[in-house]
Write a structure and sequence with these properties.
The protein is α+β, with helices and mostly antiparallel strands. The chain contains 12 helices and 28 strands.
Length: 534
């Protein structure tokens, strides 16, 4: 391991010195050193496979960020409520099926061509045809009434679309080519993509004609690295900001401070709620996966698991304190329901099992009618936090008579198995639709279905505004009698919020006030234009 680390550092030093102008320091008239560029080590999985093309899903899922290369109609503010970017205002028809956006008239693409409502319509109409992380299935069509008016026609009411409009960047109709745009995007955002060496680095430069706040940081160089390589790059002083994991913070890096950001990056367990032998609905390509688990389909098992896991201990021992307990995937967001919270109570967990007819066997594991309280638990083996959580869950559930068999794998394999086998999931977004993706019938990895929960979600999406939807999203979680809370159906057991941790050079002022969504990724550059060197 030591030899590998030394080799990694040597390769990183050679590579980083080759970066064009990275970390280049100049002098002002007074002779004081100035710096207007940064080098950031980012998770290798953050590099978008399809390039920087919003039509193909760039800025969706774990790539979520504020306007960067392309502008968006709306933005999410620091408190995760909705603000404006290209749009000056928007209205929703009483039936929720028509949204009208009035957009700014002073925005130009980096090639000098004005951005109009035609570009908005072009972007969305084409993105609707693609199968990406951006869900646009609620849309029927988008039309440009004039240069500053875009009208969105919906198949069904969808109040949460405001959050979608905050991540879909607008591309130029006149300069879009599906084969090449992702590599050489033309946008209207704060930065221009100047260079992309696939698998290695991205270099962004400030857009001199940006209509908003002018970036103080003129060049942003991003290198894609594994956890080990990111740490080694910081040790070698070759990056200004390096993402890291809790296990690396026990050995601080000289000249670097540790930054910790609040997140919606939640870890939890999906607990399949139906018996084994089921199948997921077939996808467009005909693929279908096994679903259901005979053990976790037992309500008493799911409720006991929620009570038997010591979340505080996971924060302390797995996250080294860089996190907090979590009971939902909506921590500190406007639609979070306080009823999701549950106390650590292993004694009560046992009493729930025993009241349901489970009895301890000679080896200390509960059994019921020939069924043993035992199941496999999948986790991504390359991720140190998920590995630690899986092992902690095993030990904690052992104490209440439930046997867990952790199995490390890759996400590509886990994605086909987790409908029947619980997995240490990562989740959390800047949108209430996370509630839908985890609990709506036919949409979730727990294979969970509840008509009352579905009804509240439908009503939330049909609300007259995104603000009016918040109480309904809360009811979908718990209405006082029915819901997904630990004392109710408990199809997911949420455990901890992961702080996003970075090593940053001591003289770099990193501004980032917004709660980060799931995935280290691009959210670190949300406010990179406001960073400064001391």
């Amino acid at each position: 391991m030591r030899n590998k680390r030394i080799l990694a550092i040597c390769l990183i030093v050679i590579f980083l010195f080759a970066l064009v102008g990275c970390g280049k320091t100049g002098k002002n008239d007074a002779g004081t050193a100035t710096k207007d560029s940064v080098v950031i080590a980012m998770d290798a999985e953050s590099e978008p496979a399809a390039g920087f093309d919003p039509i193909m899903g760039w800025a969706a899922g774990e790539h979520t960020h504020d306007p960067l290369i392309q502008s968006t109609l709306l933005i999410t503010k620091d408190d995760i409520t909705i603000g404006y970017d290209l749009a000056k205002e928007y209205t929703i028809s009483p039936d929720g099926l028509t949204w009208t956006f009035k957009i700014r008239s002073d925005v130009k693409f980096t090639d000098g061509v004005p951005l109009t409502a035609k570009d908005v319509a072009f972007t969305y109409n084409n993105a609707m045809k693609q199968a990406t992380d951006t869900d646009l299935s609620m849309l029927k069509s988008v039309e440009a009434i004039d240069d500053t008016t875009a009208v969105f026609h919906f198949n069904t009411p969808y109040s949460a679309f405001a959050y979608t409009a905050a991540v879909v960047g607008i591309v130029p109709e006149h300069a879009y080519n599906a084969a090449t745009y992702g590599k050489n995007p033309i946008g209207s955002g704060r930065y221009i993509l100047k260079q992309w060496d696939k698998g290695q680095q991205v270099i962004l430069e400030a857009n001199p004609n940006y209509y908003g706040e002018k970036p103080a940081i003129k060049k942003v160089s991003i290198v894609f690295m594994s956890e080990d390589a990111s740490y080694a790059a910081a040790q070698g002083g070759q990056v200004d900001v390096a993402y890291t994991a809790p296990s690396y913070t026990v050995n601080p890096v000289k000249g670097y401070k540790i930054l910790s950001f609040n997140t919606e990056d939640i870890r939890g367990l999906n607990l399949p709620t139906v018996p084994a032998g089921n199948k997921t609905p077939a996808k467009k390509n005909g693929e279908s996966y096994p679903a259901g688990n005979n053990v976790t389909s037992q309500l008493a098992i799911r409720q006991a698991i929620a009570l038997a896991i010591d979340r505080e201990a996971i924060v302390k021992n797995v996250l080294n304190g860089y996190g907090s307990v979590a009971y939902s995937d909506s921590v500190n967001e406007p639609w979070e329901n306080e009823a999701m919270k549950v106390a650590f109570d292993p004694a009560k967990a046992k009493s729930i099992l025993e009241a349901d007819g489970w009895r301890l066997s000679a080896d200390g594991i509960y059994e019921k009618q020939g069924l043993t309280a035992e199941f496999d638990l999948l986790y991504i083996s390359s991720n140190s936090v998920r590995t630690g959580i899986a092992m902690a869950v095993k030990e904690m559930l052992q104490q209440v008579g439930i046997k867990v068999n952790p199995i490390g794998s890759s996400w590509d394999k886990i994605a086909t198995l987790c409908y029947e086998t619980p997995h240490v999931f990562g989740a959390g977004s800047h949108s209430p639709t996370g509630v839908r993706s985890h609990y709506y019938t036919g949409k979730n990895y727990a294979f969970y279905s509840n008509k009352t929960v579905d009804r509240y979600i439908d009503e939330a999406l049909a609300a007259t505004s995104v603000e009016a939807s918040y109480p309904l999203w809360k009811k979908a979680q718990w209405d006082g009698a029915v819901g997904v809370t630990p004392q109710a159906d408990s199809p997911w057991v949420w455990l901890v919020e992961i702080k996003h941790i970075y090593f940053a050079k001591e003289n770099l002022n990193v501004i980032d006030k917004k709660i980060h969504p799931h995935g280290y990724g691009w959210t670190i550059v949300n406010n990179v234009h406001q960073w400064s060197w001391k």
